[in-house]
Write a structure and sequence with these properties.
The complex is a heterodimer.
Chain A: H1 2-39, H2 46-66, H3 77-106, H4 110-132, E1 145-147, H5 149-156, E2 164-165, H6 166-188, H7 190-200, H8 202-207, H9 212-237, H10 242-259, H11 264-282, H12 286-292, H13 311-325
Chain B: H1 3-25, H2 27-54, H3 61-76, H4 81-111, H5 114-144, H6 164-183, H7 188-208, H8 210-213, H9 229-233, H10 236-244, H11 249-280, H12 283-293, H13 295-300, H14 305-331, H15 341-355, H16 360-388, H17 397-405, H18 409-424
Helix pairs in contact in B: 1-2, 1-16, 2-11, 2-14, 2-15, 2-16, 3-6, 3-7, 3-14, 4-5, 6-14, 15-16, 15-18, 16-18
The chains are: A mainly alpha, B mainly alpha.
Membrane topology (chain A): Multi-pass membrane protein
Main location (chain A): membrane
Keywords (chain A): Amino-acid transport, Cell inner membrane, Cell membrane, Membrane, Transmembrane, Transmembrane helix, Transport
Chain lengths: 336, 433
């Protein structure tokens, strides 16, 4: 019984939140990794692209709610998501045409593009604040819980409860769909294959008649869709605030790099590595250990390895440790 | 146009902008902008040393600036004897243990082979972590329990606050050495993101380790290198002199202290500029640029690229540390919560790129100009929005929205300035010669 209680406590505070957060990071990191693999620079504006997509989805959600459309027990934001994605595709394609194309044609060094993306980051951040302000916005509606702690306790007779929020399940399901679609696209379609060829060897791809402009356009579209999805999932799970998305950039980069920049499978693995290390290192293990240890050995402290405020620090410490031992990430990333 | 005339004109423009601010918004505002502009110029000088001279992509500026701020507290505040008694020695013993663990792990990495190496490293790191916590945690708790409303930390050395400026540089240099030793082997993108992360780690430590500098409880009322306004107002000699200049004593005293800071900051800026110019035109500076332009060729010529990179990384970071200490001195308080990468890292980068990377004068111009814009864009934007919406009815939703959004003009403008400079004048306002 104690072991079961310990498992439930672990699931409630570590596994379920870790899975949801990991899925959000993984979709975010996929976007960063695609840009790196095909356009060959680290996109600092990615966090703000996510914020823009989410802001657009929130506006769409409000419009739907205003005319009385809801999604039943599911958040209405899922219905508004295609609108958010379309708006974000428009934004990134415009940005590419106005800003990045010039440097691509010049064959500027990757590091120049990184600095350019910082400028884009400032502008997008400003635009998002113009559109939606700086307030904290909660836009999750519908059922809040699939199962609450009390229901779980009554059902199983255990003393520990397990609460699973709707947004957590939606996050994982949507993430699985998004990743499956992406891999199907990259492996089965003609455009997807040319994207992979372009990423592996640009010159060879050009020689075999791949249209680089089209590859770049499709990449941006996919990235916009991924960024909006990741942003909306994160916003549903926590809340939307323009500034938090900029901070989210840090663990997303860490995830992409830990997995190996330019490697989609790595990005997914990296997302979960970062998420679970953040959660387990800052979780107070006292409850779980109390169930598992004999009474005489029970811990008196919280048994927390680091305080919760060190969350971002953890993702970076892991990033640096991985980089020191595997300079191109866990799965082999590209090195330009 | 002759570059000398052009550059003088550009600096003249900054001077005009400041004079204009003085005439329109008052001299106090103008001096406030000037002082932070001087500090920003120093930060830009540090980043320019790393990026402009050596092509090192460091976006962890914020961390070094924050370390400079920490130095101000550690140098200038009085010590807390009770806290030292409660756990002073023990906390340092804990830190020493932590450091010993890392050193032991590094030695194990170097000396051992194969699976033994992995296991030994893990055992040392995990075991060391728990020993460290066992020694460190009780001491931390004991210190933080002492009068937490006003202290709760170990305090500082009670030395003159001016001394904290070089100490801030040293602290940042020390951190840069550790970071450089581990991260400088990485490629440019990876290095950038690693430095970004390390800056976040430094801020997280500043926010959480209350025994060090009170964390988010902030340290206020730091000593000042210039006289207090209230003392000046009570000084009959000063009041008389102010009256002879036609100023009331309150205004005169605020201007006097701000002028004092401006003079101190200008002295530091000029010294650093002179040093940076000497470095740029020395064989060392030429070597750095050669490494920046073609690392492989420089290595083939027998230059130790890694060692030179480490050197310039430390020097540039130290300058950022000095600037950080100066800023905290000017503010009179350390507030770790205010360190944001947008303001203390990315804005400094905008300064360097806009001013002209690789040129020290460019970095200084960029620092002053961009800081001026950063401060003034909001009132200017508000004025603009008022003008644009003047035709609209009072209280209309669009008008309110427009006026409200003026507050968000800053980031947008900074981004547009950066993007236009990168596009139309990629070498900056004062290009490298």
């Amino acid at each position: 019984m104690d072991i079961l209680n310990a498992l439930v406590a672990l699931a409630n505070f570590v596994i379920v939140p870790g899975l949801a957060y990991g899925a959000q990071l993984a979709i975010g990191a996929l976007g960063v990794t695609l840009i790196y693999g095909i356009l060959r620079f680290s996109n600092f504006a990615h966090g703000d692209t996510m914020a823009f997509g989410t802001a657009m989805t929130i506006i769409g959600t409000n419009a739907l709610l205003a005319i009385g459309i809801t999604f039943g027990p599911l958040p209405t934001a899922l219905l508004a998501l295609p609108f958010g994605i379309a708006a974000t595709i428009g934004l990134v394609l415009a940005t590419d045409w106005l800003v990045y194309k010039f440097y691509r044609d010049q064959k500027a060094k990757p590091v120049i593009l990184v600095i350019v993306s910082m400028g884009v980051m400032f502008v997008m951040n400003g635009i998002v604040r113009f559109i939606i302000g700086v307030d904290d916005i909660r836009f999750a509606d519908g059922e809040r819980f699939i199962i609450t702690a009390r229901e779980f306790r009554d059902m199983t007779g255990l003393s520990e409860g397990l609460a699973i929020r709707t947004t957590q399940v939606i996050t994982v399901v949507v993430a699985i769909i998004a990743v499956a679609l992406l891999f199907w696209f990259l492996n089965k379609t003609r455009t997807g294959k040319s994207m992979r060829a372009f990423s592996d060897n640009e010159d060879l791809a050009l020689l075999s008649g791949i249209n680089p402009d089209w590859v770049v356009k499709v990449t941006w579209m996919i990235v916009a869709a991924l960024a909006t999805t990741a942003g909306v999932l994160y916003g549903l799970d926590k809340s939307f605030k323009a500034f938090t998305y900029f901070q989210l950039l840090l663990p997303i980069f860490a995830a992409a790099i830990v997995g190996g920049l330019g490697n989609p499978i790595g990005a997914i693995a990296g997302g979960f590595v970062i998420a679970f290390s953040e959660v387990t290192i800052t979780y107070a293990w006292k409850k779980v250990l109390t169930y598992l240890m004999p009474e005489s050995l029970e811990p008196d402290g919280l048994v927390q390895l680091l305080s919760t405020d060190y969350k971002f620090a953890v993702s970076f410490a892991i990033l640096i440790i991985v980089l020191l031992f595997k300079p191109t990430g866990l799965f082999k990333g590209q090195s330009v | 146009m002759n570059p000398i005339y052009k550059n003088t004109a550009l600096f003249g423009l900054v001077a005009l902008l400041l004079l204009g601010t003085g005439l329109v918004q008052g001299w106090n505002s103008a001096l406030l902008i000037l002082n932070m502009g001087l500090i920003s110029a120093i930060m830009a000088l540090g980043v320019n040393l790393q990026w402009g001279f050596a092509g090192l992509f460091n976006i962890g500026v914020m961390g070094f600036v924050a370390l400079g701020g920490l130095a101000t507290v550690l140098v200038s505040t009085p010590p807390v004897p009770e806290a030292w008694q409660a756990g002073g020695l023990r906390i340092f013993a804990g830190l020493a243990l932590g450091a010993a663990t890392v050193v032991a792990a590094v030695i194990a990495q170097k000396q051992l082979q194969g699976r033994v190496r992995t296991i030994a490293t893990l055992v040392i790191l995990i075991g060391g972590f728990f020993v460290f916590r066992a020694v460190f945690d009780p001491a931390k708790a004991a210190i933080e329990a002492i009068n937490p409303a006003s202290t709760g930390n170990l305090g500082g050395l009670n030395l003159p606050v001016l001394l904290s400026w070089p100490v801030g540089g040293l602290l940042a240099a020390g951190a840069a050495w550790i970071i450089g030793k581990t991260a400088l082997g990485l490629r440019s993108d990876y290095l950038a993101i690693a430095t970004l992360g390390i800056a976040e780690i430094i801020i997280a430590i500043l926010k959480n380790e209350d025994w060090l500098a009170r964390g988010v409880k902030n340290v206020i009322g730091l000593p000042r290198p210039v006289p207090y306004e209230i003392d000046l107002q009570n000084d009959p000699g000063f009041v008389e002199r102010a009256a002879s200049l036609g100023l009331d004593p309150v205004t005169a005293s605020t201007l006097y202290t701000k002028m004092g800071y401006a003079i101190l900051f200008t002295i530091v800026l000029l010294i650093l500029l002179w040093l940076a110019q000497q470095a740029l035109h020395s064989p060392w500076g030429r070597m750095m640029r050669a490494i920046r332009d073609n690392e492989v060729a420089a290595e083939a010529m027998g230059k130790d690229v890694t060692a030179r990179h480490l050197q310039i990384f430390i020097l540039g970071s130290a300058i950022c540390g000095i600037a950080g200490a100066m800023m905290t001195t000017l503010d009179g308080q350390l507030t770790p919560g205010t360190y944001q990468p947008l303001r203390f890292t990315f804005l400094v980068w905008v300064m360097v790129i806009v001013g002209g990377s690789g040129n020290n004068f460019g970095a200084i111009l960029g620092g002053m100009l961009i800081w001026f814009l950063w401060v003034q864009v909001e009132p200017l934007g508000l004025g603009l929005m008022n003008l644009l919406s003047s035709g609209l009815e009072d209280g209309s939703a669009l008008k309110d929205r427009m006026i409200e959004s003026a507050a968000h003009m800053r980031l947008l403008t900074m981004g547009l300035v950066l993007l236009s400079v990168l596009r139309f004048s990629p070498r900056g306002l004062i290009p490298e010669r």
